[in-house]
Design a protein that fits this description.
alpha/beta, 31 strands, ten-stranded mixed sheet, six-stranded mixed sheet, elongated
Length: 587
Amino acid sequence: MNNTEIDIDDPTLRDRAVAAARGDAPFDLLITGARIADMATGELRAADVGIIGALIASVHPAGTRDDASETLECSGTVLSPGLIDMHMHVESSMVTPETYAAAVLPRGVTTVVWDPHEFGNVVGIAGVEYALNAAASSPLRILPLAPSCVPSAPGYETGGADFDADVIAGLMAQPGIAGLAEVMDMAAVTARAPRMRGILQAALTSGKPVCGHARGLTGAGLNAYAAAGVQSDHELTSADDLMEKLRAGLTIELRGSHDHLLPGFAEALMTLGQMPVTVTLCTDDVFPDDLLTGGGLDDVVRRLVGYGLDPMRALQAATLNGAIRLGRRDLGLIGPGKRADLVVFDDLAGFRARHVIRDGRVVTKMADAPVHATPFRDTCALPRLSPAQFTLPAKGPRVRLATIDRPRFTEWGETIADVVEGGVVLPEGATWIAVIPRHGQAAPVPRLGMLRGWGDWHGAFATTVSHDSHNLTVFGRDPVHMAAAANALIDAGGGMAVATKDRLTVLPLPVAGLVSDRPLPEVAEAFAAVRAAMGEVVTWEPPYLVFKALVGATLACNAGPHMTDLGIADALAGRLLSSAILEDGLR
C-alpha cells in the first residue's frame, strides 16, 4: 500500500460501515441514480451506493435509502470502479508527478503503476526515491516499480547508473515498491545471463509482480522469456502477437500509445467468449499535449470502445483485471467492503468523468498542482559542441558503412559513401544520428551513425529524452543545424530542440533532462511547438516514421540496430560496432 493510504481494515471504520449497512446509522456519502457497472457479473444495473469514510458500506436497490450526510445525485450516469493504469512513465508526459496526478485523477484514473526507469537511468537510486516520495504525498494512488534495466542493455550503452541484483533486492524489499518494472533486456533473460538471472531471482524471491517487455518475441523465445519468471507484456505488435501472448499465460498490459494497433486488438478480443482476466490496460507513454487534451487511461478506454470493444469488457480490463494482477482485493469492484475508488461517467461512449471519488472523497476539480522543489537540475552539464564534431572522419575517397534502416522496427543495412575533405558525405535520403554521453561516465564526444528510410530532412532535432539511457541524441543532415540544436539543450539543461536555417524551437526539460516543473498547459504548448516544427523538418509516414520513433532510436534492448554512445548496438544479435565505417579507403 501507499505509505499514506487509508487503512480500510481499521476496526472502527469497519464498525461504522457495518452499522450503516444494517441501516442503524447514516452514510457519510450516498450516490444515487446511477447504473452500476458490475465487473463481477458484466451487468449494467440500477443501484445506489453508500459510503463510510474510504469504504463502500452498501450497494442496495435504488431509492431505498436516503439517510446520508451528503448525497451525490447521478441520474442518467454510469458508476464504475476507478480506472487502473497498469504500466506508465510519468516522465513521458514531461511533467512532475504532482502535475500528472492533477491531469488524470479528475478524469477517473485513480491508480497508476509507475515505472520510473527514466529517472533511474539518469540519476540512479535517487530517481526511484523521488518516485516513492511523490507517491507518498499524491492524491492519485501511485504504485512505483523498481526499474529492472538500468541500463537497458548493459555493455551496449552508457547510462547514469547501474542497478545490479543487489540493488534490485534492496529496492524490492521496500514496502512502497509494487513490483519489478518491465524487464527489457530480452536477450539476457533468455540466455540466463548471470546479471539478469540475479535481478529476476531477487524479484521472484520478493513475491511481487515481475513485469515484462517482450517486443518481437515468439515461439521458443517467448516460452523461454516467460519460463524465466516474467509475467506480463505491453509490447504488442499485432493481434496475432496479442493472442500468442495470452495463450502463453502472460498478463497483457494493452497500451494506448500505438493507436494503429487498437482496432485489431478490439476485434481479436471480441472474438473470444469472454474478456480474459489477464487483459489489463495501460498508457505506457503519453506526450504532454495528448495528456492535456485526451487524458490518461480514460482515453485508452474511449478509443478501444470506439474501435469496437464492448464497453463493459473495456472497463473490466481497466478495473477488475488490473486489481487482480496487483493482488488488490480492495479495488476493481463496486461492492460492500471494497475501497471507495469510483468514477461517475456520463455514458459508456465518451467516458467523460462527471465525478471522481477517491478513498470516499469526491474529487470534483483539482487545483493547480502544488509546486515542490525539483531536484536533478544539473544532468546536462556538457561543453558546447562544434559543427565539426557532427561529421564522420574517414580517409576516402569512399567508405563502406553500416546503416540503421527503417524507424521503429530497425534493420541492418550497408551503403557506399564518398569522402570529401576527410569527412563522409551523406548519400541522398540518409540522415545522421549522433549520441553524446551526458552522465559523466564517458567523454562527451558525439558518436555518429547513418539512418536510411527515416525521411528527407531539412533541419536538425536534438533530445535528452532518448530511451533508455537518455543521452543527448541529435538527428540531421547539416552539422551546423545539429550543433545548434545540441547546444540549445546544453544551455537549457536538457529537453528537445529543433534547428532550421532560420529558427530554433526549444522545449526546456531541466529536471534530469526529462521533465519540466512548469504547468501542464505551458509544457504542452512548448511540446506541440516542437512537434509542429519537426513536421516542417521531415515528412512523417505513419505508423513507423513518426515523431515517437526519434525518442526510441537509441533503445538498444529492442531487436535490430540502434545508435548508442558506444556505437551501433544490436543486443539481441550480440553485435556492437564502435564505428559505422566497415571499410575505409575504397577506390
